[in-house]
Amino acid sequence: MAVIQHGYATAEKHVSVEPDKYVEAELVLNAGKLRIYGVETEDGPPVKTDYFAAHQEIIDKMGRTSRRQVGYFNLHDTARTFVLPSGEYIAEIRHGQARAEQRVTVEAGNEVEAKLLLQAGNYTSMP
Predict the structure, then answer these.
(1) How many domains are contained in the chain?
(2) Residue 113 to residue 106: CA distance in whole angstroms
(3) DSSP assignment, residue 94?
(4) How many whole angstroms separate alpha carbon 113 and alpha carbon 55?
(5) Residue 22 lies in a domain
(6) Could you report the per-residue pLDDT of 54-81, keeping only the tens digit for each?
(7) What distances in angstroms separate CA 105 from CA 14, 87, 112, 122, 125, one per listed residue?
(8) Does residue 39 form part of some domain?
């Protein structure tokens, strides 16, 4: 079995190997990139935050919808890029008490950007 992983995308293929023979195997990841970042206001700069995540919605046999977290980063940065299998995802970002999410489609070989509007600001108490 040949297995390859890049980011959160994986591919595997059954391969026969004979003694003293060189074998090549081509595996297709069918993956794309999802870049997530957040802004406090529509025209504001990207904010440094601690939580970036990608989720997929799962519908069970009873028709109930739940979410499966596919990947996350908890590094303090302004943006994070995920390598994911092509498909439908929900991009999420948290900044302090603010949280935003957006549905996105990741296509193989492409990069999609999710700019999430946090609609947040800073509060300063005056004496």
Answers:
(1) 1
(2) 9
(3) E
(4) 15
(5) no
(6) 999 999 999 999 999 999 998 889 999 9
(7) 29, 6, 8, 32, 41
(8) yes
Does residue 49 contact residue 93 with C-beta atoms inside 8 Å? yes
**Segment of 8-12, 16-20, 34-38 carrying the highest mean pLDDT:** 34-38
Residue 77's CATH number: 2.60.40.1120
DSSP 100-115: EEEEEEE-TT-EEEEE
pLDDT on residue 123: 63
Residue 122: CA count within 13 A, CB half-sphere: 3
**Tens-digit pLDDT profile for residues 11-28:** 999 998 889 989 888 888
Supply the DSSP string of 17-64, one letter for each residue: --TT----------EEEEEEEEESSTTSPBPPBSEEEEEEEEE-TTS-
Q: What angle do CA 54, 57, 63 make, to 5 degrees?
A: 170
Q: What is the pLDDT of residue 124?
A: 66
Name residue 81's amino acid: T
pTM, 2 dp: 0.83
DSSP state of 126: -
Q: What is the pLDDT of residue 23?
A: 86
